[in-house]
Amino acid sequence: MDWNEKAKRLLKSELIKRGITNSDLVLLLKGIEIEETKASIDSKISRGTFSASFFLQCLSVIGCNKLTIEEYENNYFLESNKLQLVAEPNVEYNTISNEK
Q: In sequence order, what E strands does the chain have?
């Protein structure tokens, strides 16, 4: 999974839902004393490589209080290697007591 692409799509979709352009976002961010240019925002969003802080600042100024992230399978993939989450079996363990 391309996480940068996912971050970019989440932010863009929230902007589109609210009819907010990147130019509008510059002004909204300025309202919370975050100095960005339209070109810098265009670049960050197009690459999808922005900080979590920038992401939260953007969501905050556009009034996004709740974000829905689509669910994925219980198995997660890292490139071609499959990583599975495995629960420890429900087994009662015998312990050795230090009593004499």
A: 76-78, 81-83
